[in-house]
Amino acid sequence: MTTQDAGHINLNFKNRVNEALADQELRGNFRGAMDFLMQKRAAMFPDQEDLEALRKRGEQVRNRCLQQLPDLLEQLEAQCVSNGIQVHWAETAEQANNIILGIMRDHQATRMVKGKSMASEEIGLNHFLADHGIEALESDMGEYIVQLDHSTPSHIIMPAIHKNKQQIARLFHEKTPGVEYTEDVDKLIGTGREVLRQKFFEAEVGLSGVNFAVAETGTLCLVENEGNGRMSTTVPPVHIALCGIEKVVQSLADIPPLYRLLTRSATGQAITTYFNMISGPRKPDELDGPQEVHLVLLDNGRSRMYADKQLQQTLRCIRCGACMNHCPVYTRIGGHAYGSTYPGPIGQVVSPQIWGLNNAGNITQACSLNGACRDACPVNIPLPDLIRRLRHDGNNSTAEGQTAGQGQLRKPAEAVIWKFWALLNRSPLLYRLTLWSATRFRKLIPSHIGPWTRYRSAPRPASKSLHDLMKASGTQTNHPTNQP
Asked: For position 66, which CATH number holds?
């Protein structure tokens, strides 16, 4: 999602939610997929004590690396340059897009093949390159499916999880010339591979994300299951790695606990099929690999998160998606309803901090604060606390945080109501008068009171207040004005 697109989140959020709730096929797809993923994750962590110990270790690793982040980024740059990797810094999405476009133009490149990269979705890279006449083809099967459907990912790990095999079969049959309709999963995957295989050799540039960037060795680590990441980073002559600045770890020793948490939490696997470690371009005595490697380090609001001690915890995220899989709201409305690159609980925390509370703040309301996301997070991010914090900042312009759009979610009518409520509870006389009026004229209260009565009955006071009942029973009550 680009910055321009972010403005549509608030406008269409409620409409998207209502559409998702009305789509029974979508709800069935998500319910089945989320139940399956939760069961697989639970099977990977049969011992709760071992799980908690590993989560604690992962949290400690991420906290230690974040505390040293400025120094580690400088060390990473120096080591990468020493390894022959060209390092670029992008403060904004626009800068990152222009850096990547510049690299493409330097090589007269018109075709890019992409491994999975949520950061590229965050900056709207595909649309940006298309506007400049460059084809960017997704090679991750899930990403390829949503690109073929002219859609966007609905999950950060499994982009096409909102579709069942019948929908994918129809999509391939309608959008891929010469492909017959089939619901055989192996044949569908084979069709995708057949289309993509030639693209790896035709593309002048390959792009990937980065799961972990090791400062000590200048190594870029990429976790994947399909092999497309390895093809994207070795077959084209130029490889561009797009990496959020929070992905840096201090040493290779920091990776095993994070990797173990990532794979088990994301897909319920003990280990993924491929773990790629990229430390530079092809050397003269090597048979394969790119001739150039570029690392684009993306900020795009992360420094602002880092500056806030509480919200800094957002940057611990290892992008496993477990919070989404366990979220009862996400399970019912899916990822597209959020209208953001990052949906679900982590999206409710990340998106407002990247695009501003004025643009993405409304999605913080898509949370019942049940705490399932906190319990599922492999690095112990207190997601409900951060969501509450952002809700507060969105309604208070004087909040101490630095998130863009603070106070812009506050509604004038709601502000007036709360001011009256505060006045009512400060004045014993006004409180008693209001209480007396509410019990005597209770039948005049309307049955429809805005959004509150959309799913609830209208509140109606009792015919007698507690003070009236106690007085009738002969029990003495003391009002605040009678207190010594």
From this structure: 3.40.50.10420
